[in-house]
Amino acid sequence: MPNALKLLQNKFSDCIRETNCHLGDTSAVVNKKAVHDILEFLRDDADLNFDLLVDLTCVDYGEGEPRFEIVYLLHSFKTKARIFIKAQVSEPDPQVQTVSDLWHIADWYEREVWDLFGVSFKGHPDLRRLLMYEEFQGHPLRKDYSIDKRQPLVTAEGTNNSQITPTLEQSQQAMEEYVSEENGLSVRHMFLNMGPSHPAMHGVVKIVLELDGEKVVGSDVGIGYLHRAFEKHAENISYTGVFPYTDRLNYVSPIINNVGYALAVEKLLGIEVTERCKYIRVIMSEISRIADHLTCIGAMAMELGAMTPFLYFMQAREAMYQLIEEVTGARITVSYVRVGGVKADLPAGFESRVHDQLKKVRAELKQVHRLLSRNRIFVDRVQGIGAISTADAISYSFTGPMLRACGVDYDVRKTFPYSNYDRIDFDVPVGENGDILDRYLVRMEEIEQSCRIIEQAFEKIPVGNVMVDFTGKEIPAEKMADLGKFGQTEGLLLQVAVTDPTLLGAGESEHAEVRHADKRVSLPAKEKTYASIEGLINHFMLIMDGHGICPPKGEAYFPVEGANGELGFYIVSDGSDKAYRVRCRPPCFAFVAGFSKMIEGCQLADIIPAFGSINMIAGELDR
Amino acid sequence: MAEGIGIILLKFGFILLFALGLGGLLTWVERKQSAIMQDRIGANRASIFGLRLIGLFHPLADAIKMFTKESFTPASAEKFLFTLAPAISVFFALIGFAVIPFGDKLIFGDTVVNLQVAPLNVGLLYLFAVAGLAVYGVVLGAWASRNNYAMLGGMRAAAQMISYEVALGVTIFGSIMIYQTVDLQQIVHLQGGTFWGWLPAWGIFMQPLGFILFLTVGIAETKRVPFDAPEGESEIIGYFIEYSGMGFGMYFLTDFVETVMISAITVTLFFGGWQVPYLLADGFHFPWGEVWLLNNWTVALFQIASFSLKVMFFLWLQMAIRWTLPRFRYDQILRLGWKYILPISLLNIVLTGIVIMVLK
């Protein structure tokens, strides 16, 4: 039994109902009255020191009693241990003590749980809805809320929103009330709505600012404009069907989301993919990470007026996207990874093209270093701006480059290595001031490290059967499609198209390399599906509604290092072909939650680079 | 013989075409130059009868678009000032060109035409007066829009332009001390000839520090990157946020015309205006003794071409700067202006004074 559980048993013996070590996840079900004390103990105990509240979420067990289970996931930087604390809450009036006084991030996590499940938190300072709008009725992630039930704000009959826009007189009147006295002068602060439609609020986020001149006095960040009910959808579709939804989480590095979700399901199933497949996942993840970092830094520079570095980085990103397109057939909505493998093997000659493109990335990186890293104007704009202390960053549950910029060398790839990251040699860059400059430098260095990881992965990847095209007078499929698009179809039907190996799907020859042999998860090779009755039945069993991939009853949390930080999927399975609950822990949620703190006392103009540096991706933030 | 009203109108037309044409062309230069710097192709779609001319029709397409778009006035705006402000802005940007000399003298029979629209003996002071008034267009437009973003932009513009107005005046005191005049035509005349027989006697060789300071301040006055805090398109979208159609077009044009203006003044004060090295009124006199005699018309053409080329060089330079640097924060701009540029300009005056004393 892990140390943490022993200590808990000793100290809170009458409050612990159950302890468990399922699939390597340590968990304890505790009395809901004691949850605050237990979490405080876990955080403050000198030996345990669980200082990071990784996640706080809720599971609705519907008819079950007690109905709700609040799940707290804690991480300790000191011991590298994790523990789940669960508190059961029953109807009516589900309520639990807030922990927002222990961790800043709990404020937003609890608001989200209140919003989506209707579990309230006693003592929470500001329990408003977070993802849904104020007028929303009910709590959408409850099991009794039908997925078809829509509540549009604007209908054919008109709007059911009374507060959409106040009239000019109303707003002027409201402004008059905000007069304060300072040094004998009456002072009126300016209120400014930044977003949801604003050039720097890429994605859609609203910041209501209170300004004294150009100084930010207070701010309130509002999110949820891109809420697409990812978690609700994931409960209502087969395990494989979730992949396209994960593409749309962090849409700049979708393959990492694919990998994270697949690993979580694989953990539930207890299967491990082939060696070659692991390295393919590493290579594709790192290519995505490079694309993500390039976008983040480029966009931040552009918003500071430096258009040229942005376009240089877009070129480098284009090189990455071409590689992704070549392997997956798509640039953004890739859906490349499968439970138990990947869709198809890498195309022939891919390695040399990757090396060429990495050369391009490095050249652009060097150029942008020259343009920005020692540029006096740029450094003046970002040094010491938007800084956050290490203690605050941890309290806000920062991970990834943002936390590393504060000097904490926490990287999921090193702490909980997955997909053979432990066999690859790479450095984790850390900053020290936690300001925008450090975040910029950390990301720049991470691009270089990702290049190194890709190169090493290609050295170590076991050689498999790589598909080769057959020769003849055929034309490539994409060229045929292009001709068709332009209406040049004459004689086209008489031609034979060469299908790209990536589009063909897994054939017999490469099947063993990229897919797990487990028939519960892997579709059979196409030849088998079409030519043998076993293959056909196997195929049907995985595709038909009500069958498909059915992990055993249980739950699992799997973290991967997303481009922004720890991206975790928490999946509860009831043994059917649909997940009972899927929770995505989006890394940039924490950054946006801590944004008000970051810009306190800053100038209006500083908000823009600060917002650029947190790399907010609305797709994963709002889910 | 004095110039007739017809000739003055001709000159007026020429300089207006020069400023507006270059201003319009700059929209194309900006697109193309930034495209080249950023490894892109740049605007190349606008065509007339299939003729694309590397995108040269884009300024025309822009103009048609601006003219035909609805000019929307927000409900809460001050209608009169809202409409007037962009016109004020572009007016003060244009009238400054009246005192810029673009050539020496053109002789038609017994009529001597001075190639300067208004031969004002206080030309330089007039220029600064006009530049000082330009801020009104911006601030009025921002105020009349009744929009918080516009107002922030207007306040930034006012703070920035007024601060740099002071520095702008001080940076050229050095030149005034050397030339002992504020008549621009005369300043250009005094930049004729050579030092040591080969180096053109341009202002930059006497006022190198003054030139760098003046160019910096000049770019700040045009409100373009890195000094574009009043616009700050990613922060506050700018003082013209509520403008559309031609109202926006005029602000847009003002920026470009001011860019041409700053280039023209820089050339006039520091790069010998219309002077061509070794070209005197009767032709070229090279340092190695060779002499090419030219008639008055050819000399005038050389001078006008020289002036235009120099102006274009500085346009190119300003564009290159604009597409290389990020933007200052507005308090950093003010700090730079008051704490660095102004004291250094004052130092420049003292240094110039000492040098003049010593040389006497």
Give the oligomeric state: heterodimer
The number of distinct helices of chain A, counting runs of at least 4 residues, comes to: 24
Q: Given this structure, which CATH class of the domain at 230-463 and 551-622 in chain A is correct?
A: Mainly Alpha
Uncertain segments of chain B: none
Strand order of the largest sheet of chain B: 5-6-7
Give a short account of the largest sheet of chain A: 5 strands, mixed
Largest sheet of chain B: 3 strands, antiparallel
N/C terminus separation of chain A? 36 Å
Order the strands across the largest sheet of chain A as they lie in space.
Answer: 1-2-5-4-3
Give the helices and strands, then pairings.
The complex is a heterodimer of chains A (623) and B (360).
Chain A: H1 3-11, E1 16-22, E2 25-30, H2 35-44, E3 52-60, E4 68-75, E5 82-89, E6 95-97, H3 106-117, E7 120-122, E8 154-155, E9 158-159, H4 168-176, E10 179-182, E11 185-188, E12 190-194, E13 206-212, E14 215-222, H5 230-235, H6 243-247, H7 254-269, H8 275-303, H9 307-328, E15 337-338, E16 341-342, H10 350-373, H11 376-382, H12 390-395, H13 400-405, H14 412-415, H15 436-460, E17 475-476, H16 477-485, E18 497-498, H17 501-504, H18 508-514, H19 526-531, H20 533-543, E19 554-561, E20 566-573, E21 579-585, H21 587-593, H22 595-599, H23 604-613, H24 618-622
Parallel strand pairs in A: 2-5, 6-7, 17-18
Antiparallel strand pairs in A: 1-2, 3-4, 4-5, 8-9, 10-11, 12-13, 13-14, 15-16, 19-20, 20-21
Chain B: H1 5-37, H2 58-68, H3 79-95, E1 105-108, E2 111-114, H4 123-145, H5 148-171, H6 173-179, H7 184-190, E3 194-195, E4 199-200, H8 203-206, H9 208-222, H10 245-270, E5 279-280, E6 283-285, E7 291-293, H11 296-322, H12 330-359
Antiparallel strand pairs in B: 1-2, 3-4, 5-6, 6-7
